[in-house]
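Q: What would this chain look like folded?
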Amino acid sequence: MKKAEKIEAALRGIGGIAAGESDLDPRYLGYFTCFNGQRYFEAHDVLEHLWLRTRDGDHAFYKGLIQFAGAFVHLQKQFQRPHHPKDRARARPAVRLFHLAAGNLAAYRPFHLRLDVERVWTLSTTLAAEITLAGYANPWSPEGAPNLSLEKGK
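A: My prediction, written as C-alpha cells:
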C-alpha cells in the first residue's frame, strides 16, 4: 500500500472528520486529532499529504505545522529512549524545527483556518528558547504535552 493510500485509510479511521462534517480539509483536521493523541509522526504525515498538493497561500502555513509536529517527534523519541545513541540527542533538531515552524507560521498570526496561530507560534519560540537555555534538556513529557484546538467561526 502506498503512503497516500495509508493516509487516506487512517483518515477514514479517525471518524466523523473524514465524512465531510466540516468545511475544512479532513487531512487538516486529522493533523489535530493525531497531534493531540501524541502521534506526532502521523500528524506530520497526514498534513504533509495536503501540503504536497497545496500551492496557494496556505503552503507555508501547512509547512509550519508539519515542522511543529516534527519538533515534537524528536522530543518524544528522546523522552522515550534517552540513552539510545540515535535518540538521546534530539533536542537540537527539535529547536531547529521550532524555529522553522515559527518562521513559516508568523505571517498567519493571529488566526488562520480557525487555528490560534499566535499560540502555536508562541509555543514554538518559547520551547526553542527554553530548550536552548537549559543546555538542550528535553522538557517534553506525555503529561505536559500541548493540545491544539480549532476555534469556531474564526
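The longest helix spans residues 59-80.
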